[in-house]
Amino acid sequence: MDVLIVGSGGREHAIAACAAKSSRVDKVYCAPGNAGIGLIAECIDISVMEYDKLADFAEEKQIGLTIIGMDSPLVGGIVDVFEKRGLRVFGPRKNAAIIEGSKAFSKDLMKKYNIPTAAYEKFTDPDEALRYLETAAMPIVLKADGLALGKGALICNNLDEAKEAVKTLMIDKQFGDAGDEIVAEEFMTGREVSVLCFCDGTHIKPMTSAQDHKRAKDGDQGLNTGGMGTFSPSPFYTEEVHKFCEEKIYQPTMDAMKAEGRDFVGILFVGLMLTESGPKVLEYNARFGDPEAQVVLPRMENDMIDVMNACIDGTLDKTDLRFEDNAAVCVVLASDGYPEHYETGKPISGLEKFDGRDDCFVFHAGTKKAGNDIVTNGGRVLGVTAKGTDLKQARANAYEAAKWVTFENKYMRNDIGKAIDEA
Ligand code: AMP
Ligand code: GLY
């Protein structure tokens, strides 16, 4: 069959690579895709928010499975549009994607069903939020309720910063309507782990763990970004932590969504903080993480398409997820200045060094073709992923491979996976 992938980042490139190697798949399409995806799939110039046009395309090409990579179309209801037209699609419906689309919803869900998470309050009135903050414990985390490109969580060390954050989110509306409501959340400390899970509405199967590096600069300094690099597995995600999460977080979340009439089918991304008092949920996402997908999917031994079909058919309980007994590290190569101002259109060289390799990969995020060149076209430009027998080897391999690629204003963090040394 032919598959269609909706999105254009490194995550979609990693998904496309898995789809391309599936024995079930003849041809991969991606809308809109990018220059790297274009090397293994046919890119279609339709935006991720044009649900009807995408469905028209899927119908016309008799696409056997459409995979939605990105959050905004999922939260906007693309899956419902496809299902209404009888098209097979992988991802949660709108009423389930709300678990990512509204922090207020997800916090209320966790409270109602006793799923461990930070204590919180919600506000729709900035004055009320400011009154609450006068006596709240600091630091505190203020979050826009809605989608904000992973940048809507503001950590405030004192009252002045908290007041400023209320202004940013609710008055200046830096994230638009996403800041109509905010969540004020207890500040937690600990190691962060991302666990992406396949879900079929009833059953949930966690994949191997990963750790993201959200801040722009070394030493976890600078602004929050979409993610500057990842490693997998996380040495801090022990068997004991896993068992706790299975019992208290993963299955309870599936059951809670079902009890609310919001059966979750697709990828549930559970962002965890491993606190002194046990693992707690930082956030849920309704899709693969980016760059988490770039270290998790290359290690998966199953045929991804088979697992996705099991999710849609409600037979995930019969699937055993298997991952290679190795490690992977992804270093994001960004345009200097990201996540603020940066230049684009810079020619990229060295990409051919990855051709034909199965131990390291270059996933494209912000790239496009310009004549015979591939040029930078975004903040996060490429994700260089390397495998290794263990995390240290994978990290050394990833930093070596990151040198192969050059472009003007190339920027990367030099400490991706530093935490490995503390394990
Ligand atoms: P979120 O968008 O909710 O994942 O938040 C983005 C990042 O902010 C997380 O990955 C954490 O690094 C940080 N963060 C969010 N909530 C908290 C919290 N309650 N305590 C400490 N850090 C947090
Ligand atoms: N890397 C975090 C995310 O995909 O939201």
What does this structure look like?
- With 423 residues, this protein is α+β, with helices and mostly antiparallel strands.
- It has helices at 10-21, 51-60, 71-76, 78-84, 94-101, 103-112, 126-135, 159-171, 239-259, 293-296, 304-313, 391-402; strands spanning 2-7, 27-32, 42-43, 65-68, 89-90, 120-123, 140-144, 153-156, 182-186, 191-200, 204-206, 211-212, 215-217, 221-224, 229-232, 265-275, 278-285, 327-335, 360-364, 367-370, 373-376, 380-388, 410-411.
- The strands form six sheets. Strands 12, 15, 18, 19, 22 and 23 form a six-stranded antiparallel sheet that branches. A five-stranded parallel sheet has the order 3-2-1-4-5, with helices on both faces.
- The longest helix has 21 residues, at 239-259.
- Glycine is lined by residues 150, 212, 227, 285, 289-290, 292.
Structural class: alpha+beta
Alpha-carbon distance between the termini?
44 Å
User: Helix coverage percent of residues?
Assistant: 25-40%
The rough form would be described as globular
Total DSSP E strands: 23
Main pleated sheet: 6 strands, antiparallel
Stretches where pLDDT is under 50 for at least 5 consecutive residues are none
Annotation field: number of helices: 12
Average pLDDT works out at 97
Integer-rounded radius of gyration: 21 Å
Strand content: 25-35%
Task: Describe how the helices and strands are arranged.
Blueprint: E1 2-7, H1 10-21, E2 27-32, E3 42-43, H2 51-60, E4 65-68, H3 71-76, H4 78-84, E5 89-90, H5 94-101, H6 103-112, E6 120-123, H7 126-135, E7 140-144, E8 153-156, H8 159-171, E9 182-186, E10 191-200, E11 204-206, E12 211-212, E13 215-217, E14 221-224, E15 229-232, H9 239-259, E16 265-275, E17 278-285, H10 293-296, H11 304-313, E18 327-335, E19 360-364, E20 367-370, E21 373-376, E22 380-388, H12 391-402, E23 410-411
Parallel strand pairs: 1-2, 1-4, 2-3, 4-5
Antiparallel strand pairs: 6-9, 7-8, 7-9, 10-11, 10-16, 12-15, 13-14, 15-18, 16-17, 18-22, 18-23, 19-22, 20-21
Helix pairs in contact: 7-8
The protein binds adenosine monophosphate and glycine.
